[in-house]
Amino acid sequence: MKTYLKYIPLIILAATLLSCTEDLQEYNPAGSTAQSLFTTPEGIEAGVNGIYTYNRYFYGKEEGHALMEMGTDIWTNAANNNTSGTNGIFPQLSLTTYQGLTTDNVWVKNRMWQQCYAAINLANNVMKYLPTAGVNAARQKELEGEARFLRAWYYYMLVESFGPIPLRLAPTESIETTATRATIDAIYDQILQDLQFAVTAIPTTTTEYGRITRPASEAFLAKVYLTRGKNQEASNYAKKVITGYNYKLLPTYANLWTFANQVNTEVLWAVNYSTNLAFNAGSNISHTLYLMEYNTQPGMKRDVANGFANVRYMPTKFLLNLFDETSDSRYNATFKSAWKANETDATKRPVGINVGDTAILTSKYPVTTAFRQSKKYKIYDVNDVYKADGTPNDRFHYVSLQKFDDPTRATDATTESARDAYIMRLGEVYLLAAEAQLNLGKKDSAAYYVNEIRTRAAVPGRQANMRVAAADVTLDFILDERARELAGEQVRWFDLKRTNKLVERVKKYNPDAANNIQTFHVVRPIPQSEVDAVTNKGEFAQNPGY
């Protein structure tokens, strides 16, 4: 049973959430102010809990998947994402293909820029009032460590997304009309300073699932060091997380995605979604986003077991071909290729197909005419779904991601899920260690960490087939391995950005986006409303290219 980190309603903290450049009209019916809220230990505790809340607007949400997984080499538009709105291109489409990605993209503004700065401002408030709020010394250090970690977390999200940005270390308590973009070096210096404090102050364990711990802080620090090219430091922290605690890889990859096994020895940090959907800021809808339109096919109807298909995102042909499913169990654990007939009305099923028989098969391989004619069920093979160059032919029917399925939803029409959204897990830490070791020129060590992951992923009896030699490990191989291990887990865009591979791999493997992506797309556009709001526009210019 999960013990949840208790979040407080954001309305209580409304007075602390002013944008750094924009005059927001906040509704604060209780009349609460930072000065009154943060004068007691209880207020400080509530404030720290509130900083976590902003991840709920991103992880497990459509906007977060669009910002972190789309526009990469492994996903592209499905049918219900491949359209334009009456006021121009939908925000998700422009993030997927880079076509029409402009300074007024509402998801870039609302879900990345504004939410991260609101969280940072709350963290700054907590740290300002913490010394005088009457918190005992030991707890004060822990809470400061959490606030500093979370401030570093949100600044990392911002600097990787936008490049140079305003760096604010004190709360914004009145309207400000000027802003200055700090250098990337200055921002990362502050991130590292905050994280170095956090890893000494935060406890090793927690009784509140969802709260950050020291090993999770160290895992994030490893990623930050890797991003900054400090490979030895990245390797040291990754190794400490792998060997210094009780975290363990689960015996099989599929264990990670069993709904009843969400709290396990591999998860370092997660957004903990409650079964009480009212607490979830919209809950986790990841399970809906990558599903094909199965429910309109003969013999099928929408049900809880098969999921609510939003038909937003589909795998690139490249992603499917990264797997050798005869040896790698992650393919069948990650993707759903077959659907069983569930239509009880026999007149709506193909002749000869009963409930429980295969009704649909999607295949990443070509199927012969003879094979197709020998089956009663509907088949969508690779040539039905993709053109030779990988451009989708059929954006309605495709191999679908099933990692995030939720068989516990109340009804087939329920889109909200109580599944947790993993933010960091041990499997990724192994791959961070491998990347750091490769960058240090230690390919044998890099292969060791990769093989730990691949051995866990092996089909029983195929472990030897999954192991790679040191000579096989390149940066592209590690990115391929990260795709096999982490597909859909809201890390891909940052992976390609960190390794300077975003433009190269999108052009090579994602034909929907290949012609649109430009070198300037390695950062997002600063929201135009932020640029318009400042009076010192000469010091706060838009990112080049937008």
Describe the overall structure.
- With 546 residues, the chain is mainly alpha-helical.
- It is 40% helix and 6% strand.
- It has 22 helices and eleven strands.
- The chain has helices at residues 34-37, 41-52, 62-68, 91-97, 106-129, 137-162, 184-201, 214-227, 231-243, 286-289, 317-321, 330-334, 369-373, 382-385, 426-439, 443-457, 463-466, 475-486, 492-498, 502-509, 511-514, 528-533, and strands spanning 75-77, 84-85, 88-89, 267-271, 313-315, 335-336, 338-340, 358-362, 378-380, 400-401, 421-425.
- The protein has a three-stranded mixed sheet with strand order 7-8-9. It has a two-stranded antiparallel sheet with strand order 1-5. A two-stranded antiparallel ribbon has the order 2-3.
- The protein is globular and about 75 Å long.
- The chain starts with 33 loop residues before the first helix and ends in a 13-residue tail after the last helix.
- The relative contact order is 0.14.
- Residues 312-546 form the RagB/SusD domain.
- It is found in: Cell outer membrane.
- Belongs to the SusD family.
- Keywords: Cell outer membrane, Membrane, Signal.
- InterPro entries: SusD-like_N (IPR033985), SusD_RagB_dom (IPR012944), TPR-like_helical_dom_sf (IPR011990).
